[in-house]
Write a structure and sequence with these properties.
The chain is mainly alpha-helical. It contains nine helices and three strands; from the N terminus they run ααααααβββααα. The protein has a single domain, classed as minor pseudopilin epsh fold (3-Layer(bab) Sandwich), CATH 3.55.40.20. A three-stranded antiparallel β-sheet has the order 2-1-3. It is globular.
């Protein structure tokens, strides 16, 4: 094979590989389904018994497959009835004052739980990143002081609701909400980007802890997914959107 033929063959080979790669990418792009506007119950990233002995498997199964599933189904129905299909959950909840209670309650239940499942994980003994620890020390005095203040917010929710660690405009804040409200809603007293949340509805703990909410809150610290929370802080500390 002479030099000219070799160069031509090599060029055609490279072009063929490029074309094949481009074709594969185009086919992959076409195969992806466009979101149809329906909210789907997310799969948990761990088995129901993975958080034992801190969160029991029976509660986890009921919490996810019954309670969260009901919020998801009811949210879809309410969104369809209101003619809001195609809007994301965040878009809807960030202007929730415009919409009826069925969307507020079920939309909050859908999105709050979707975040919550990612913020907990099987116990590993890991701690927050240095970046997040420094921020917690700056705004609360120490990691232990933060845990005490967060726990107090969770313990003092009257009835059902959530405790939150959020990124506000200039610092970290601890807040709580009633029912399925959240800090991303325009009706929230304290608005911000959620970093960590704890569900203190009785359905989250009653089978194992009965009325002993403080024990459930103490157990929660064993299953916080600090990798996820730290990464979320690192990405969102300078923004006010999720």
């Amino acid at each position: 094979m002479d030099k000219r033929t070799f160069i031509k063959s090599s060029f055609l080979g490279i072009a063929g590989v490029f074309t094949l790669g481009l074709s594969s990418k185009l086919k992959a792009a076409k195969s992806r389904k466009k979101w149809n506007g329906e909210f789907v119950l997310p799969e948990l990233p761990y088995p129901y018994d993975a958080l034992e002995p801190f969160f029991d498997s029976e509660t986890m199964a009921l919490h996810h497959s019954k309670h969260h599933a009901a919020y998801t189904n009811n949210f879809n129905a309410a969104v369809k009835a209101a003619g809001l299909t195609g809007k994301t959950a965040h878009e809807i909840l960030s202007e929730i004052s415009k919409y009826p209670a069925a969307i507020r309650n079920n939309g909050g239940g859908y999105l709050n739980h979707k975040m919550f499942w990612k913020m907990i994980a099987p116990a590993t003994g890991k701690q927050p990143s240095k970046e997040l620890v420094d921020a917690l020390i700056r705004d609360f005095g120490s990691l232990d002081a933060f845990k005490e203040k967060f726990g107090a917010a969770a313990r003092t929710v009257f009835g059902s609701g959530w405790a939150w660690l959020i990124v506000g405009e200039d610092k970290l804040k601890i807040t709580s909400t009633s029912n399925q409200d959240s800090p991303i809603m325009d009706i929230a007293t304290e608005k911000g980007v959620p970093l960590l949340c704890l569900d203190v509805w009785e359905h989250a703990y009653y089978l194992k802890y009965q009325n002993r909410r403080p024990e459930f809150i103490d157990a929660f610290w064993n299953v916080v997914n600090w990798d996820f929370v730290s990464d979320r802080y690192s990405k969102r500390k300078t923004t006010a959107t999720t």
